[in-house]
Every structure is written in structure tokens, then in C-alpha cells.
Specification:
Elements: H1 3-22, E1 26-27, E2 30-31, H2 36-40, E3 53-58, H3 72-75, E4 79-88, E5 91-94, E6 97-98, E7 107-116, E8 119-128, H4 132-143, E9 148-152, E10 155-162, E11 165-171, E12 178-184, H5 191-199
Length: 204
């Protein structure tokens, strides 16, 4: 390739990557930085099912009773966890949804939205490890190429940078058939709090 064409190609690639990295992190309409009220007002993501509803609970709440409205004290806590849930008789279940409506076999599950001081600071989900290439492509549309790729034994960790945060893909996650994706803004909770969020059912 001629030097001039190489320069034009490099500029175009840099603009593409910069443009992707300049977009705020988002997943199916949920944008890092939005308020909890704005999140609740969103339509549930495609594939959720007609009985899915936004369910939130205080991370440090002593009583996590599924379906119980949050108290004023809980709403004022530092960290609130939300998810889309559904009730089947006496059983509560978290929904999965399409990561891309054009790919109905590509679904996210164990999705958690963490709000810090009332604003969305983190989105976490899991997907089938076999779909890693599709998940990487979806993240790449927002963030461009990964900034860092590392292997830790059999585990692959990829990190993308974006405006006001970063995305980390870990394959496999704690479950060998799943990968995990961690979309974190500047005020995201610690990994210890994330593990607690995944372990606990929602309330109210």
C-alpha cells in the first residue's frame, strides 16, 4: 500500500476506534450513569417475556424478601441491585434476554444492574462460553478493539476501554460453560460486592 493510502487508512481506523470508545457504555437501552428511575421506565429487553418486571433491592439489606417493596431506608442506601424478575406461583426467577434481537440464540442471563448513589454504575451478565465470538463482536461495536488481552491458565480475560468506564470479559467464568461480562463505570462497586449481588435473590 502506498504511504498516502496507508495514512488515510490509519486515520480512518483511528476515527472508528475513537468513535466507538467515545460512546457511553450501554446494554439494551440501559446506559451507565442513568438514574434508577430512568432504568425502571425502560421497556424490558427483547426476549424477557411478558411477565418480567424491574425488581430492586438494597445490597446490604438484612431482609431480602422477593416481591417486598424497598423501604425508604433501603432506597437511600449507597448501593442498590436491580434485575428483571418474574413470579411463577411462589417462585421468583430472574429472566434472561437477547443480547442482540437479531440473534435469538445469543442470550444474557444472571443480569444485574448495580446503582451507586442512585445512578447506574455497573452492568454484569453471563452468556454461553460457546458464544464468545458473538459477545466480543457486540462489545467491539461499542468499544472498538480490546485494550488488553491476557491468559491466566485456561482463563481468558479481555478488557475494552470506553467513555467513562471499561468492559471486562472473562472466559470461563466461575461456571465452566459460561463467560462473564463486567461493564463498569467510574463508580462501580468492588468485586466483593459484585459476588454478593450475584449470590442473593432480589427483593421488592
Amino acid at each position: 500500500m502506498a504511504p498516502k493510502l496507508q495514512t488515510v487508512a490509519a486515520i480512518a481506523l483511528a476515527a472508528l476506534v475513537t468513535g466507538a470508545a467515545a460512546r457511553p457504555l450501554a446494554l439494551n437501552g440501559a446506559v451507565i450513569g442513568m438514574t434508577i428511575g430512568e432504568w425502571r421506565a425502560l421497556d424490558p429487553p427483547a426476549g424477557e417475556g411478558a411477565n418480567a418486571f424491574p425488581n430492586c433491592w438494597a445490597l446490604d439489606s438484612a431482609g431480602r424478601i422477593a416481591g417486598r417493596p424497598m423501604t425508604a431506608t433501603e432506597r437511600a442506601t449507597h448501593i442498590v441491585v436491580c434485575a428483571y424478575d418474574a413470579r411463577y406461583g411462589e417462585t421468583w426467577s430472574s429472566h434472561s434476554f437477547y443480547l442482540d434481537p437479531r440473534l435469538p440464540t445469543l442470550r444474557a442471563h444472571d443480569v444485574r444492574y448495580l446503582f451507586t448513589d442512585g445512578r447506574l454504575s455497573e452492568i454484569d451478565y453471563r452468556a454461553a462460553a460457546a458464544a464468545r465470538g458473538q459477545v466480543e463482536a457486540l462489545i467491539g461495536r461499542q468499544c472498538g478493539a480490546p485494550a488488553r488481552v491476557a491468559s491466566h491458565g485456561a482463563r481468558l480475560v479481555e478488557v475494552w476501554r470506553a467513555r467513562g468506564g471499561e468492559v471486562t470479559l472473562t472466559d470461563p467464568s466461575t461456571d465452566p460453560v459460561d463467560l462473564s461480562v463486567h461493564m463498569a463505570g467510574p463508580h462501580a462497586p468492588s468485586p466483593e460486592l459484585l459476588r454478593s449481588a450475584f449470590a442473593q435473590p432480589g427483593s421488592g
